[in-house]
Amino acid sequence: MLQKVTGLESSEHLPSLTEAEDVLQGLADVYSSVGTAMQPFATGLLNKPVALALDQSSAVVARYKTLIEQIPAVVFMALLDKGIGEAYVSPQIEAILGFSQEEWLNDPVRWYRQVHPDDRGRWNVEASEMFLSGKPLRSVYRVLARDGKVVSFHCEAKMVRHDDGQPWFIHGVAFDITELKTAEEKLKKAHDELELRVRERTAELARANDHLAKSNAELEQFAYVASHDLQEPLRMITSFTQLLVKRYRGQFDVDADEFIDYIADGAKRMSSLINDLLEYSRVGTRGRALVPTDCSAVFEVARNNLRVAIEESEATITSDPLPTVMGDETQLVQLFQNLLGNAIKFRGDRPVKVHVSVEQQQRNWLFRVSDNGIGIEPQYAERVFVIFQRLHNRATYPGTGIGLAICKKIVERHGGRIWVESQPGAGATFCFLLQRREQRNR
Amino acid sequence: MCDLPDCRSIEVLLVEDNPGDVRLIKEALNDAKIHVHITAVHDGAEALALLRREGDYSTATTPDLILLDLNLPRMSGHEVLAVIKQDEHLRRIPVVVVSSSKADRDIATAYDLHANCFVTKPVDLDQFFEVVQAIREFWFVVVKLPPEQIADGAT
């Protein structure tokens, strides 16, 4: 086989083959792998090839020729039993690859040389399989056009045998799918780029999340430490102011007593603020794992904790049967207690009535704590949840303005949301969502 | 009213770095009925020097009770407590930890190190006085303090 290849090198029709030894080596390997059946064809490689156009003498053949030449693809045929004597390629070859029919057929290994070097190995394997098994070949190869451009062909080929089983001829069609391939590659590239960007963005988000979680934890730690350490000097101020009042009240003038009162009052309020800040920071730092928690029991504990205020205000506090939610019991008690406590604190002239109702949603329970108190003007509906924000003066309604901020933090820690629906004088309804059951994806 | 054998005054070692607290505790411990002598030191190293009669403290009296703050410069109150309770000459002295901390970990650590009791300083002055006076009532009146004459380890 290699001798024949060497022989080809000397052929005047194939002057360029010296530079493509690998080309012929590959082709020779394919033919030799097929065995004796392919010998005539292999032998034919040595002979001068004769390109045959279809016989135009026959009108029938002429019609078929027209039919074949109209197909917008390269149709090809090569006899295998008489050397390389007869072959056909449809004229579309020129439009697609830039080689004329004659050029293509005059050089018996032209087509193989034009197959992209990276695809030749695959053609060798797939063609051998076709020759040996007789199964049609169906594959995509890249082929180099005359100007060096890469053309993608979807190739369908079949070998036809004589009745005695000897190979007769091979025929097939090659469709130019370059545009399809280009589009496919563009799409793949776009998809890859998109995927990369999604990955980058996801990583960015994860980093941002980590950062946020870390800074949140640091902030909570800071608030805790700061408020704890702030209590120390404040205790000195309050203690010695009280000592001063105890021992020396009335021994200075009226102004001095008044000043002392302001110091004492300021220190006391600062102490409340610090304590509240500490409590607020503890929602995050001291929170326990969320477990199934019976809200009816939580409601009872909260109501019991408020019994003095309830008795004093003669409030009627009722509730629907409440469900079990995923929660931190201590924090849920605090949540209910703050909301019920507020309902009593911000009461109007009517006897206080508070009712807790609940509504099942797809993933959450919607709780409503409705009162008949003084209500909230809608423009302050968001502000009431901000830490240390107050809507009334301290003389009328004492407090630092921490209660609802803590409620918000507790609900959010439970993966829920809290808001208020209210009109001045028409009472307020505080609504919050709590998860019905554990979220699985964590 | 004096339960001590020779009716001498009660010696208290106060380990507290905040002069305001030293003053408040002194105010609260002052009582006509029991004479309490308070020595205040500002850090743990000084406390141990006094207890071991080192340096300037060669003539110091061994206290009947130690009031120990946790938040001290250099050596922490817990460290001082650990040293006292591991020292066979000092471990009988009752140590009352008086701290502004309410943290479970601080309380547990103090008892693990054999503190005799743990008291949190109340923020309110009246409550602070009540607590210190309760310490005085309990440790100086109710409790039998360890005798001085019995050799260490004897029963």
Structure description:
The complex is a heterodimer of chains A (442) and B (155). Chain A has helices at 2-10, 21-34, 39-44, 59-70, 92-97, 101-106, 110-114, 117-133, 178-248, 254-285, 295-305, 307-313, 329-345, 403-413; strands spanning 74-79, 87-89, 137-144, 150-161, 167-176, 291-294, 316-319, 324-327, 353-360, 364-371, 418-422, 428-435. Chain A has 442 residues and is an alpha+beta fold. In chain A, the strands form three sheets. Chain A has a five-stranded antiparallel sheet, sandwiched between helices. Chain A has a five-stranded mixed sheet with strand order 7-9-10-12-11. The two termini of chain A are 67 Å apart. The model of chain A is unreliable at 1-20 and 42-55 (pLDDT under 50). The longest helix of chain A has 71 residues, at 178-248. With 155 residues, chain B is of the alpha/beta class. Chain B has a single domain (10-141), classed as Response regulator (Rossmann fold, 3-Layer(aba) Sandwich), CATH 3.40.50.2300. Chain B has five helices and five strands; from the N terminus they run E-H-E-H-E-H-E-H-E-H. Chain B has helices spanning 19-29, 44-51, 77-86, 104-112, 125-142; strands at residues 10-15, 36-41, 65-68, 95-99, 117-120. In chain B, strands 2-1-3-4-5 form a five-stranded parallel sheet, sandwiched between helices. The relative contact order of chain B is 0.17.
Strand order of the largest sheet of chain A: 2-1-5-4-3
Which radius of gyration of chain A do the C-alpha atoms yield?
45 Å
Total number of distinct structural domains of chain A: 2
The biggest beta sheet of chain A is recorded as:
5 strands, antiparallel
Count of DSSP H/I helices of chain B: 5
CA radius of gyration of chain B: 15 Å
How large a portion of the residues of chain A is in β-strands, by DSSP E?
A: 15-25%
Oligomeric organization of the protein chains: heterodimer
- DSSP E strands of chain B, number: 5
CATH homolog superfamily of the largest domain in chain A: PAS domain
